[in-house]
């Protein structure tokens, strides 16, 4: 769990980097499973004359047995429960192979919705080659809204073409070594600059269980947003869309109580149904 000082840092700035949370041997296995899935994407199996695009897929599969257990790793889960409450639940555990710059954006702008992301990069990155950049404090509504009105350079496709615009915004670039873990609030504005093809990231994401009618409405809104995002990303990844929540994971053959609680929550709030409809549509 985070120390009191670390938790204060997170609450103040909206993110924190934990150094060396995973060992060299663990990262080696993560990379092997990542590579296995990457080689079945359109980047490898589609037309080779096309510009590589960002690929993303679920790790909750039998093909990635180690990565599928990542969300329950106590080094991550204990922090998620510390910040969001012991009844928080997993929404996704995806892998992403990033390409080029990433525009400025928050993952969420509804402040009745609360979630945190755990980016785990599988290679060293700094501010010049694609490290995650965050605007400190932008997880707080007043500043978040101010940044939104400012519309930081690099927010849209036109300003992205100006190149250095992302780098010019006052930010913190999260320099990482393989095995470091970043934790950030979904409301934080973030981007990356200078990265090339295949920046490898794993990203367990957890959500606070709603306690108020406003939080319930916000989570239904998030279901629609997550559905649309995943549907769009799927077009760049596989010829046929893969399930966000594979059947073998949902069956929970080991009768794991924590996973079952997550599955129940995903059913309750409509995530599973929404993604299953997208799979068959």
The gross shape turns out to be: globular
Order of helices and strands: HEHHEHEEEEEHHHEEEEHHHH
Q: Which consecutive residue ranges, at least 5 long each, have pLDDT under 50?
A: none
- CA radius of gyration is 18 Å
Number of E-state strands = 11
Characterize the biggest β-sheet.
Answer: 7 strands, antiparallel
* Architecture per CATH nomenclature, i.e. the level-2 architecture: Sandwich
How is the secondary structure organized here?
Layout: H1 4-13, E1 15-18, H2 24-38, H3 42-45, E2 55-58, H4 74-84, E3 89-98, E4 102-105, E5 115-117, E6 120-121, E7 132-134, H5 141-150, H6 157-160, H7 165-168, E8 172-173, E9 181-185, E10 190-192, E11 199-207, H8 213-234, H9 247-251, H10 257-268, H11 271-280
Antiparallel strand pairs: 1-9, 2-3, 3-11, 4-10, 5-9, 5-11, 6-11, 7-8, 7-10
Helix pairs in contact: 8-11
Summarize the entry for a quick read.
The protein is an alpha+beta fold. The protein is 38% helix and 17% strand. The strands form 2 sheets. Strands 1, 2, 3, 5, 6, 9 and 11 form a 7-stranded antiparallel beta sheet that branches. Strands 4-10-7-8 form a 4-stranded antiparallel beta sheet, with no helix packed on it.
């Amino acid at each position: 769990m985070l120390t009191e000082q670390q938790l204060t840092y997170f609450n103040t700035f909206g993110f924190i980097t934990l150094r060396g949370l995973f060992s060299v041997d663990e990262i080696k296995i993560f990379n092997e499973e990542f590579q296995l899935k990457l080689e079945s994407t359109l980047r490898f199996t589609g037309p080779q004359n096309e510009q590589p695009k960002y690929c993303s897929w679920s790790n909750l599969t039998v093909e990635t047995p180690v990565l599928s257990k990542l969300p329950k790793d106590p080094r991550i889960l204990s922090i998620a429960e510390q910040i969001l409450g012991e009844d928080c639940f997993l929404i996704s555990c995806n892998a992403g192979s990033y390409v080029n710059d990433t525009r400025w954006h928050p993952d969420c702008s509804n402040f009745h919705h609360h979630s945190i992301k755990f980016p785990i990069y599988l290679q060293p990155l700094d501010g010049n080659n694609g490290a995650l950049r965050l605007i400190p404090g932008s997880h707080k509504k007043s500043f978040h809204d101010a940044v939104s009105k400012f519309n930081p350079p690099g927010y849209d496709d036109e300003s992205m073409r100006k190149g250095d615009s992302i780098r010019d915004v006052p930010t913190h670039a999260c320099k990482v070594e393989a095995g470091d873990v970043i934790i950030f609030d979904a409301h934080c504005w973030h981007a990356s600059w200078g990265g090339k093809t295949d920046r490898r990231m794993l990203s367990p994401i957890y959500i606070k269980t709603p306690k108020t009618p406003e939080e319930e409405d916000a989570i239904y809104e998030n279901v629609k947003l997550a559905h649309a995002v995943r549907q769009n990303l799927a077009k760049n990844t596989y010829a046929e869309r893969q399930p966000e929540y594979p059947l073998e994971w949902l069956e929970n053959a080991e009768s794991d109580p924590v996973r079952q609680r997550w599955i129940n929550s995903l059913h309750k709030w409509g995530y599973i149904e929404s993604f299953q409809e997208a799979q068959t549509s």
